[in-house]
């Protein structure tokens, strides 16, 4: 999987799944070292451990199917239960609580537990290294059991490990023992060399542990497999290593050699169990914030920021050049007598830069980064990327008692889509593929995690301060013979306050949706109105099908998505007016109106018959995010969504013009139409008969001969449809293959209007920015389980010769 320097045989690469025939379906084995949080008593509930692993697996599957199809069904998760090393320490500290005698006192369990002391007491226990040995044994057993199972036969892929709060500490020590064992087998070095001994700090007080086996302590074993990446979730490893460095000052943390290629320390900043690692390896990193984890709802493929350690050094020259002389000052080579930095090897590394003649500070930064990356710094760093990654944490958690946070945070890691997306990006190495390569390399998944380009206009950076993207790409319906024109508009602010003018935008399409591969078609420059209009050349025209569209701003990596639907002539469709047929309450600002009972089932009935679903609304396209989120929340089936372009005086007239052009230019046939009484005139002008027009609401004598009123609700109407369609055959298979079935899924930002009923969900990083209204989400229509949802969203459309009026924005920007 690792580009340029693979650790595993090439057959295991996910980057070439479509071009390789592998015997084993599994390409990545993820061993979850589950030890629970520091407040878990005894060994923890085995059912809870298995439930957490199942939750992680389901979230990974959903995220993979939505954005990482190349990794779907190729990652296997196996649970490895860790010994409860913190249970005894927790019991001891609880008994020392000044209020332990009074169980009825609230203060007996709140604010009097020194949480930071629990992992320190745990690693000092006599049987701690026995627990490490037990973990190694269980991990090896899980690995060998996997190899003999049906999913692991012929497995040649990579093995990754993931440790939670307690399991992460045990996992790290197991990796250090594995490194020490493997190095001793490859080379005969002196046992007294602490530089090459990764376990020196783990063998403190061997003679003070009469209850343990000395042979087990000195040699607890090693992993029978090579570990690629190690992911730590809310782990207090930094605190543990700091204590060990205090006990053994001669053994530096940078001398430890965990047997893996990269360590990722993921944590919530408010998690009392978590701690940083980078300042232990290089003290200057305490001045740098942890790397901010990209929010999945806004940047499912990453936000474009580079995680390489060299890039972080170059981005903060004021930190790493603070001890440098001025560029014009004379420089002399450093010597042991003159080096007085007092930071271990840090001073020598900085002095090595000043020994090179430099005329500009920029050159100094480049040489310093190269020196640090290629010499001592790279050898002491645990990988080539940043170690500390901060997850989004809601401010509301500051009001919770500290003793309640470990349980809440520990549960949130397993259900976090931010963690799942980050994990998948590392596994399939999509952050190593440049955006330019997607144009000529179809087998490489496109990722926005390439270096951002500078804005073409200097004023753009100033204009976009403190505003978020409100981009939209129009849903497009076209024919194979006609033009296939894509239209997008790039605005910032919830009310389109700022227009992106004269900047580059990448245009990408998923020509093979099942593969999940984005193909770069072209790069356009936005007009003065922020628009991008691109007509697919004849040589690249797409055949009948549904194709996702993505337009991405090169300056800040924000993007918008939609769908291009290429239909055959005579395709039949059913039209639904969103506000008229679905909403049971009035909501001018789109703040989550109630849904009419049974509406979702009626739409799904028409979709199952093979009809194209068209959603239409007179709302301006600036409200598209709320509308699509609302449809997603209630599991409405996938369809094409069209809005009005901005605020219009007569939305009914715009609906009529749009639908008429759609019929004339794309040669579709409207079989049925749903809406309110306001929509009757629209459907009559399209030539629909009264039997084809369904109006929701109370009957009116004025319109009783122009439509059919659904006065008894959608449930009765659905029964009549099912009875009437029993003798009617479904659409042919050739037509049904065109349509994208399922519901609006993850990429439609379904929880934008999320009801915060469960605190665990509040903790989850799936939450977007706070909505503008405190109203709770209405009851979800009981029509389709979430497991059946098809990831994706809809979009607005527009173009010359193809018809669409607005866009769909699925989680790429806040409202």
UniProtKB/TrEMBL annotation:
This is Membrane-associated phosphatidylinositol transfer protein 3. The lineage of its organism: Eukaryota, Metazoa, Chordata, Craniata, Vertebrata. It is a peripheral membrane protein. Pfam families: DDHD (PF02862), LNS2_PITM1-3 (PF24694), PITM1-3 (PF24695). Its main location: membrane. GO terms for molecular function: metal ion binding; phosphatidylcholine binding; phosphatidylcholine transporter activity; phosphatidylinositol binding; phosphatidylinositol transfer activity. Residues 791-802 have a biased composition (Gly residues). Residues 223-429 form the DDHD domain. Belongs to the PtdIns transfer protein family. PI transfer class IIA subfamily.
């Amino acid at each position: 999987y690792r580009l340029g320097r693979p650790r595993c045989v090439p057959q295991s690469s996910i980057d070439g799944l479509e071009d390789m025939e592998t015997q084993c379906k599994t390409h990545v084995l993820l061993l979850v070292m589950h030890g629970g949080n520091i407040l878990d008593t005894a060994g923890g509930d085995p059912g809870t451990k298995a439930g957490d692993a199942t939750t992680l697996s389901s979230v990974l599957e959903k995220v993979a199917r939505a954005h990482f199809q190349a990794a779907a069904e190729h990652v296997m998760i196996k649970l490895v239960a860790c010994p409860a090393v913190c249970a005894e320490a927790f019991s001891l500290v609880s008994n020392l609580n000044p209020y332990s005698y009074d169980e009825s006192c609230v203060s007996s369990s709140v604010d009097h537990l020194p949480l930071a002391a629990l992992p320190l007491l745990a690693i000092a226990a006599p049987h701690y290294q026995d627990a490490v040995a037990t973990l190694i044994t269980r991990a090896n057993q899980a690995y060998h059991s996997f190899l003999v199972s049906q999913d692991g036969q012929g497995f040649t892929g990579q093995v990754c490990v993931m440790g939670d709060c307690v399991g992460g500490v045990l996992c790290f020590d197991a990796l250090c023992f594995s490194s020490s064992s493997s190095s001793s087998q490859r080379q005969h070095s002196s046992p007294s060399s602490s530089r090459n001994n990764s376990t020196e700090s783990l063998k403190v007080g061997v003679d003070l542990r009469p209850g343990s086996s000395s042979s087990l302590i000195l040699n607890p074993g090693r992993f029978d497999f090579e570990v690629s990446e190690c992911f730590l979730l809310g782990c207090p490893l930094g605190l543990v290593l700091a204590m060990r460095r205090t006990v053994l000052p001669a053994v530096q943390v940078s001398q430890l050699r965990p047997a893996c290629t990269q360590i990722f320390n993921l944590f919530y900043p408010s998690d009392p169990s978590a701690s940083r690692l980078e300042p232990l390896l290089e003290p200057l990193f305490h001045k740098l914030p942890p790397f901010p984890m990209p929010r999945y709802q806004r940047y499912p493929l990453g936000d474009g920021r580079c995680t390489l350690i060299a890039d972080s050094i170059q981005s903060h020259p004021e930190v790493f050049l603070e001890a440098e002389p001025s560029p014009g000052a004379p420089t002399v080579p450093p010597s042991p007598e003159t080096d007085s930095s007092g930071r271990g090897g840090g001073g020598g590394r900085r002095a090595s830069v000043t020994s090179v003649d430099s005329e500009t500070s920029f050159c100094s930064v480049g040489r310093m980064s190269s020196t640090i990356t290629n010499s001592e710094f790279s050898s002491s760093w645990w990988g080539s990327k940043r170690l500390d990654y901060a997850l989004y944490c809601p401010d509301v958690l500051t009001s919770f008692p500290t003793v309640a946070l470990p349980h809440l945070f520990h549960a949130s890691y397993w259900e976090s889509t931010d963690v799942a997306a980050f994990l998948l990006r590392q596994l399939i190495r999509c952050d190593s593929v440049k955006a330019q390569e997607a144009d000529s390399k179809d087998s490489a998944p496109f990722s926005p995690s390439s270096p951002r380009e500078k804005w073409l206009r200097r004023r753009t950076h100033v204009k976009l301060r403190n505003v978020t993207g409100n981009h939209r790409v129009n849903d497009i319906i076209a024919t194979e013979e006609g033009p296939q024109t894509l239209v997008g508009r790039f605005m910032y602010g919830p009310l389109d306050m700022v227009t992106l003018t004269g900047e580059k935008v990448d245009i990408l399409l998923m020509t093979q949706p099942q593969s999940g591969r984005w193909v770069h078609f072209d790069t356009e420059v936005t007009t003065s109105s922020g628009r991008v209009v691109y007509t697919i050349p004849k040589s690249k025209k797409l055949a009948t099908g549904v194709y996702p569209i993505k337009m991405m701003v090169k300056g800040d990596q924000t993007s918008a998505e939609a769908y291009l639907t290429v239909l055959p002539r005579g395709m039949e469709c059913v039209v639904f007016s969103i506000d008229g047929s679905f909403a049971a309450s009035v909501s001018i600002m789109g703040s989550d109106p109630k849904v009419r009972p049974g509406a979702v089932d009626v739409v799904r009935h028409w979709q199952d018959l093979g009809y194209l679903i068209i959603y239409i609304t007179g709302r301006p396209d600036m409200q598209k995010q709320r509308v699509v989120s609302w449809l997603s929340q209630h599991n409405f089936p996938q369809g094409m969504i069209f809005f009005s372009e901005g605020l219009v005086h007569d939305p009914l007239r715009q609906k009529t013009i749009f639908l008429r052009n759609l019929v004339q230019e794309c040669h579709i046939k409207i079989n049925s139409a749903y809406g309110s009484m306001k929509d009757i005139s629209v459907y009559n002008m399209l030539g629909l008969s009264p039997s084809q027009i369904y109006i929701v609401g109370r009957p009116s004598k004025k319109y009783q001969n122009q439509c059919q009123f659904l006065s008894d609700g959608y449930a009765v109407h659905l029964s009549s449809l099912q009875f009437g369609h029993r003798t009617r055959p479904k659409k042919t298979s050739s037509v049904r293959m065109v349509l994208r079935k399922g519901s609006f899924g993850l990429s439609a930002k379904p929880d934008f209007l999320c009801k915060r009923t469960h605190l665990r969900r509040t903790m989850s990083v799936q939450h977007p920015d706070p909505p503008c209204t405190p109203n709770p989400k209405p009851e979800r229509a009981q029509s389709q389980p979430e497991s059946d949802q098809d990831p994706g969203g809809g979009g607005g459309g527009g173009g010359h010769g193809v018809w669409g009026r607005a866009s769909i924005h699925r989680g790429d920007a806040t409202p």
